[in-house]
Structures are given as structure tokens and as C-alpha cells.
Specification:
- By secondary structure, this protein is an alpha/beta fold.
- Helices cover 38% and strands 16% of the residues.
- It has twelve helices and nine strands.
- The chain has a nine-stranded mixed β-sheet with strand order 1-9-8-7-6-4-5-3-2, with helices on both faces.
- Helix 3 (139-150) links the parallel strand 6 and strand 7.
- Helix 2 crosses helix 3 (139-150) and helix 3 packs across helix 9 (260-266).
- The radius of gyration is 19 Å and the shape is globular.
Length: 347
């Protein structure tokens, strides 16, 4: 994050019909966390929401420049029992990827996507509770897609929120990321940006990520400003952002069997892909390719939502996840989902 019948779910794109927000109440606090030591990876900071008896394990993976706290509100919803029959409550954990949030940087300095994949796999294996529901946003969506493709034994279902899948159609913000990822240029830009107050930098990021910044609660804005200020004091902060950005751009350029879209075609787990119609970072038109590529996939485009739907409208994302999990649980006996809009332009 930067400035029904499973056999018939494939290739479906539907508009969201989830209910809207019921108000602008004070948000819940961030979930508590702790450092977890992982063999061959190092320490990672992991936040967890209280789990209901019988809840199914779920792991949330943030995007570029994000952290585990990006999932606070969504975790608070999906960890609760659902009124829908057959929908499990989730035992939710979210990690800070090495170098982000409260996780120290990787000891070997490896910020590649494959290194991120290895860190998430190490956490799942240490918890020894697989298969898990994997949920990822942006870069985190790319990470969990690769895990589902290459370690299918670990994954019960896959939910992708604006996944950073390769798309070379020109767009202003992704082009800016590619420019900043250029050696020499990125450091200069970061130095210049650091001259702005944390409040201004935070508001600029919010404008990029949200379709409607007014939906961000003032408490969440204050938390974001505080996190920017805290990370200003970390010596590894710039490297984590720049090197992770370069790694993501490198994945966009990769072709052949190792590419992310080839990974997507190998995913066997039921998959939910959620895009925001007003996403400025990941082109929502990639929803059509996702619908054609993932084997058992439901694709939803949320109207008037930006890049971080789980933060902008967690209620919509939670409702879509519950509907998806209910359909997935029914297996071959579930309702036919049909095929629609796979080749239709998405605006």
C-alpha cells in the first residue's frame, strides 16, 4: 500500500451488494501484538484478535508501506460469529512484514517478494494450524497469491484486496512508484519528502489510497500521523520502502513460469478478488484478467472505493468475505454463480 458452487465461480465479476456503514462511531483499538521469532527469517511482529471457539485460522498480509494495523477494523468484524449459516468466525492474525510496522528489517537485507513469501510461510508453519485463510492487500495480495500457488497445502481460501498483479498500462501513481524505485532517484525523493511535516505526508498518502478521505475517522488519521512520525526515527525505514518498491517493480517485469499471473493460474484454493472502482494504484480493470486466470474465483468491484477497501469500507469487505466463505463451504452443492462481465470494461 503506497503514496456458490466452486466449480462455477470462475470468471465471475459482480457488483457489491453489501450494506453500508451504520455510522461514524469511534473505531476500535489496534489489536495487541508480540514479536515472534521465525527460523531463518528473524523476528516479526504479529497482531491477533480474540478468537471464538471453533474459529478457523486466518492470516492477513499488508501492502507496501503498510502494517498489520491496516487490518484492525476488518479483523474486528470477521472474528465475530456471523448470522449467515455456514460462515465460520475467523481466528485472525496479521503480521508486520520484515522492515515494516514493528518488525525489524531482515538481517540479510533481502526485501524481495520471495523473501516476503518465505517469511509468511515460516509464520504459518510455526503456528502449525494450516490450512489457513490468507488475505492480502496490494503487495500483500501478490505475496499470498504466490504462497497459494506454490504451497497449496497451507491455504484454505484466498482473499485479495486490490492485489498488486502485473499491469503495464500507464497510470500516474504506478509510474511514480517505478520512478521512485530507480536507484538514486528514490533516495533523493525520500529526502525531499522528509522535509514536509508528518501531517502533510500522511494526508497526501490518504488522498492516494482513499476514494473518499472523509470516510477515514479522525482517530485513524491521528494514528497514521503518529506512525509516520515514529518511522521517521527508524534508520531502516527508507530502505524498507525503496527496496520493497524495487522488488515489486521487478515482479511486474518478470515473464514466464515464475511470473505472478502464472502463479495465479496455479492457485487451486477458492479465491475472492476485491477491487475498488476508484483505485488510483491498482487498475480495477485487472479484475477481468483475475476472473479469467484464477481457477475458482469470485471477483467483486466495490463502487466509489479506493485502494484500501478493508480500511475505507471494512463493512463491505467483511460482508463480501462472509458471502464468499458461505458459498465456498457449500462446495459442489452450492448455488451456481455463473459467468458475467469478464470482458466488460470496469469503471
Amino acid at each position: 500500500m503506497l503514496p456458490g458452487n466452486l466449480g462455477q465461480m470462475t470468471d465471475q465479476i459482480v457488483p457489491s451488494t453489501a450494506p453500508g456503514l451504520s455510522g461514524h462511531a469511534a473505531p476500535i483499538a489496534k489489536w495487541p501484538g508480540e514479536l515472534v521469532s521465525l527460523p531463518a527469517v528473524g523476528d516479526v511482529f504479529v497482531r491477533a484478535a480474540p478468537a471464538q471457539p471453533g474459529a478457523e485460522p486466518a492470516l492477513f498480509v499488508h501492502g507496501l508501506g503498510g502494517s498489520a494495523s491496516n487490518w484492525t477494523d476488518l479483523m474486528g468484524l470477521v472474528c465475530q460469529p456471523s448470522e449467515q449459516p455456514g460462515v465460520p468466525a475467523l481466528a485472525c492474525e496479521a503480521l508486520d512484514l520484515p522492515g515494516f510496522g514493528y518488525s525489524p528489517p531482515p538481517a540479510d537485507g533481502d526485501y524481495s517478494l520471495d523473501a516476503r513469501v518465505a517469511a509468511v510461510i515460516a509464520l504459518i508453519e510455526q503456528r502449525a494450524n494450516w490450512p489457513v485463510h490468507l488475505i492480502g492487500n496490494s503487495m500483500g495480495g501478490a505475496i499470498v497469491t504466490r504462497i497459494a500457488a506454490r504451497r497449496s497445502d497451507l491455504v484454505r481460501s484466498l482473499t485479495l484486496v486490490s492485489p498488486a498483479m502485473p499491469d503495464l498500462r500507464p497510470r500516474l501513481l504506478p509510474m511514480r512508484l517505478a520512478l521512485v524505485s530507480t536507484p538514486g532517484v528514490g533516495r533523493m525523493v525520500m529526502t525531499r519528502m522528509a522535509r514536509y511535516p508528518a501531517e502533510k505526508r500522511t494526508d497526501m498518502t490518504i488522498m492516494d489510497l482513499y476514494a473518499d478521505p472523509a470516510l477515514l475517522h479522525p482517530v485513524r488519521r491521528a494514528e497514521a500521523i503518529a506512525e509516520v512520525t515514529r518511522r521517521d526515527g527508524l534508520s531502516h525505514s527508507a530502505d524498507a520502502l525503496l527496496e520493497s518498491g524495487r522488488a515489486l517493480v521487478s515482479e511486474y517485469m518478470r515473464r514466464g513460469p515464475g511470473s505472478l499471473w502464472r502463479d495465479a493460474a496455479r492457485v487451486s484454493a477458492p479465491t475472492l478478488v476485491i477491487h475498488g472502482s476508484h483505485d488510483r494504484l491498482v487498475n480495477p480493470q485487472t479484475a477481468a484478467r483475475a476472473a479469467r486466470t484464477f481457477r475458482t474465483c469470485r471477483v467483486v468491484v466495490l463502487p466509489k472505493i479506493g485502494h484500501v477497501a478493508m480500511m475505507e469500507r471494512p463493512d463491505l469487505v467483511a460482508a463480501e468475505m462472509r458471502s464468499f466463505l458461505a458459498s465456498a463451504a457449500k462446495g459442489p452443492g452450492g448455488p451456481a454463480a455463473g459467468r458475467s462481465l469478464a470482458d466488460q470494461a470496469i469503471g
